[in-house]
Specification:
2 copies of one chain form a homodimer. The first copy, chain A, is an alpha/beta fold. Chain A has 3 domains: 44 residues, Orthogonal Bundle (434 Repressor (Amino-terminal Domain)); 131 residues, Response regulator (Rossmann fold), CATH 3.40.50.2300; 130 residues, Response regulator (Rossmann fold). Chain A has 13 helices and 12 strands. In chain A, helix 11 packs across helix 12. Chain A binds a DNA duplex through helix 2 and helix 4.
DNA sequence: CCTGTGCTTGGGAGCGATCTCATTCTACTA
DNA sequence: TAGTAGAATGAGATCGCTCCCAAGCACAGG
């Protein structure tokens, strides 16, 4: 597969390099018949312009980078990621962009920063938000790197963010429990160094307060966003002398662990205790009992973020700078009415 | 952040561009003190060579592409992927390579082929194997693109492959069931258009034959590698008049569905029926009952594949062209002795 | 003291595109 | 019919690096 250059394509089509370049880049001022002829040759020869030469001259790479920071990597086994990646790659692919993947772990952050950003190999960044105090974010914002943050941030203000309405989702969940008659409702939250965890916990509190139910701090347990985290937290809740009749768990993965703890304690959901999750991961329909949860449009999250970034890169700034997608309640079998 | 070029670095260090280039590329013939001085300037200025210019001149990009073909995309929600990706990015990162992600769905295959390969944006490919008759693989092999296939192929011969010993793993699993006294053992296999599914089924057959147990075709059910697939298959097995006392399920994800079918039939594992999975996904320890399964070193699969590819790209061909990693048995609670 | 050898160093010529600017061509107006 | 605006085209410079080759230099041997 020897590669032709734009020069040879030009010769074959009897035009200049400039004209071929115009055709490739959809520049208007090329006579239709000439354009035809050039496209013909390009197709015949299966010519594709060389990316490196192109970016050197044009200062654009048509590459965006998905940045997965340190703490997200820990929970990278969450089914969350494949879906979000799928949303991103689909959108980028359609619009002729490539996606690079960067998992920034530990102290390589600075290195990454150097290599990827200063080497100009990417036009823009999609970043999964994670720890509030992640040190990379301020650097990126400061450098004016085109950036869409997937997830919100309490005080840093990146130009664009996409997120699910986490707080509203939690309200949805807890309201459901309240409607079933529960009053003593526990919460298993993620680590509160993540915005997502905070928002979901706030939704829990908001819902209770609106219903006039007092908040008991011993009913709110913080844990890692993993099965282990959910398991440990649930054990703690079950060991209370007056245990809750229902629990809101801030992620399905944690809910899995919680279910196990319930099972090991010889109890059954929803009979002895109701459980509601968050995320609606693919496995949630197959737990025992099937998990009632809050569905997030995860793939949409990815595609929306990608769309915003590409629009920005192409000089058509998105109408909204901050988009918040709506979660929804998915009823399954893990919640039931309070038995008194 | 205005960007310095190699020219300015050269000036600041009082040497020529060539010398700076030599320092960057670790060329030996630079006097140590000069090298020091140049490195100093580079560090001070936070200079990083521009990727595009570099690849244009050197004809190398330091980018490898992870190719996720059509049919894999369907089961992309499998926790398999994050881990493999993690293995790949870690290795690549260490060795100064970037990872591009390409999900090739449907009819875009040809397009992808054009855009990514002929545009020379990548030095090599890591491909997740999928359907045996995937149309992209022959094209890649034919083009001599540096390629490591993750998974084996029955008749195409890519230069490099990494895989888990699927057949041996299945033997491990079924032997375990045999040892527990089971003789009527069912199998839920993946779709047999995938090499992985075939190998695991062959291991199942091999184990039975070696134990002198006749193979009954009605006990082997084919299904998709999803929870739904496992669910449907298990229902079929349970509806047999003489149902198996144990079932080998070719993936944990399917096993989840199978567990649900058992539960819905009013049965219990392992009391009424033993179940063994394959993969050891993170959730496997948190099913009810916890799933006995075959562990695969998934992350290692990714890092090994990456290592092979990079070694090849850097002119140090790996010693083995085909690597097969060993799976292992993980005992949990879903298997028990046969009750007669 | 001169020449040969081997290590350092510098300069120039690409790599393959884009982009600006000047030039040619077309067609329309006065 | 000449003049001219505007569209279409081409040539050359340029992007920032690598790599080849020639020149500089020091030292050893004859």
């Amino acid at each position: 597969m020897e590669q032709l250059t734009i020069r040879q394509i030009a010769q074959l089509a009897n035009v200049s390099r400039s004209t071929v370049s115009r055709v490739i880049n959809n520049h208007p001022s090329v006579r239709p018949e000439v354009r035809q002829r050039v496209l013909e040759v390009i197709r015949e020869q299966e010519y594709v312009p060389q990316a490196a030469a192109r970016s050197l001259a044009s200062r654009r790479t048509n590459v965006v980078t998905l940045l997965i920071p340190r703490s997200s990597a820990i929970i990278f086994t969450d089914p969350f990621f494949p879906l979000i990646i799928q949303g991103i790659t689909e959108t980028c692919s359609e619009r002729d962009y490539s996606v690079m993947l960067s998992m920034v772990t530990g102290l390589q952050e600075r290195d990454f920063y150097q290599r990827v950003l200063r080497s100009r190999m990417t036009d823009g960044l999609l970043m999964l938000s994670s720890d509030i105090d992640d040190p990379v974010l301020p650097l990126l914002i400061n450098d004016q790197m085109p950036l869409v943050l997937i997830g919100e941030h309490p005080y840093m203000q990146p130009m664009y963010t996409v997120d699910v309405a986490n707080r509203a989702g939690a309200v949805l969940a807890v309201n459901h429990l309240l409607q079933l008659g529960h009053r003593r409702i526990g919460a298993i939250t993620g680590l509160l160094q993540m915005k997502t965890a905070i928002d979901r916990r706030d939704g829990y509190k908001q819902s209770l307060l609106q219903a006039g139910v007092a908040i008991e701090h011993q009913l709110m347990i913080e844990g890692e966003f993993t099965q282990e985290g959910g398991y440990a937290a649930m054990r703690q809740l079950l060991s209370l002398e007056h245990r809750p009749s229902a629990v809101f768990v801030a992620s399905d993965t944690m809910a899995l662990g919680a279910l196990r703890a319930i099972y090991e304690a010889g109890l059954h959901a929803p009979h002895d205790i109701s459980l509601i999750g968050f995320d609606d991961v693919p496995g949630a329909a197959y737990t025992t009992p099937a998990l009632t949860t809050i569905h997030q449009p995860i793939q949409k999250l990815g595609s929306t973020a990608a769309t915003m970034l590409l629009d920005h890169l192409e000089g058509r700034p998105p109408l909204q700078q901050h988009i918040r997608l709506s979660p929804s309640l998915v009823l399954r079998q893990s919640c039931g009415p309070r038995v008194s």
